[in-house]
Amino acid sequence: MSSVLQPAAAEQYPPTAGKYRPVSSHLAIAPPVSVVIPAMNEAANLPYVFKSLPDWIHEVVLVDGNSTDNTVQVARELWPEVKVVEQRGKGKGDALITGFQACTGDIIVMVDADGSADGGEILSYVSALVSGADFAKGSRFANGGGTDDMTFIRKLGNWALCTVVNRKFGARYTDLCYGYNAFWRHCLDKIDLDCTGFEVETLMNIRVVKAGLKVQEIPSHEYLRIHGTSNLRAVRDGLRVLRVILQERSNRRALRRRSPQSPMLDAMRGEVS
């Protein structure tokens, strides 16, 4: 699934070394990494976002949500090779799905455009993936993580919804509604995203568990939005998240009722009889 080469090994085998990108003094990788940034009127924040991105990433995909400011122009000035994709629908989920479809990298990283995420943390996410994880999930509440941008009510809501998901789906998450995540491209075939709003992170977190993918939480620090105001609405979007949880739970029960007995179980029954 992944390819890792230590710098010393790269020097020892020069014919192969050209395929690897040094990402730190201790790690080099072969898989190209795509970073997806959904943005709508975030021109003032993009300088902070792009400044923190590591220079070894393969591509940056900016999904423009019909911005009325110069978001696209600023992005191209900051990262001349940026791939700009126009969003035809509405909502964060729709924007991310659009961006994922435009990616060419083997690893995809989701980063918000408000300046709240530290692009330097991408190294931790990618390291987890090339070490064996399928999905590297950012967590503000894992040991070493933190947040400067959540009210008590939002923290309480996130904890409650996270507890429900853990109990209903057998997950062990410490955070549920966080948009800083990374995964292997092949995961998209197994989670089949079909939502449009801020509930997209919750849907991803549930479906990777249902698909049996290996998840590793990455401690992450969420900073305050630098400029502008968020489109997130705690009550409205919290209800949408709850609706997704209930729908996924209902779908899981329906699949269990329709699932035929496994061939192995049938064989065991035959041996017993």
From TrEMBL:
Coiled coil: none annotated. GO terms for molecular function: transferase activity. InterPro entries: Glyco_trans_2-like, Glycosyltransferase_2, Nucleotide-diphossugar_trans. Keywords: Transferase. The keyword Transferase applies. Residues 34-156 form the Glycosyltransferase 2-like domain. Residues 253-273 are annotated as: Disordered. Gene3D superfamilies: Spore Coat Polysaccharide Biosynthesis Protein SpsA, Chain A. Signal peptide: none annotated. Belongs to the glycosyltransferase 2 family. PANTHER family: RFBJ PROTEIN, UNDECAPRENYL-PHOSPHATE 4-DEOXY-4-FORMAMIDO-L-ARABINOSE TRANSFERASE-RELATED. This is Glycosyltransferase involved in cell wall biosynthesis. It comes from Streptomyces violarus.
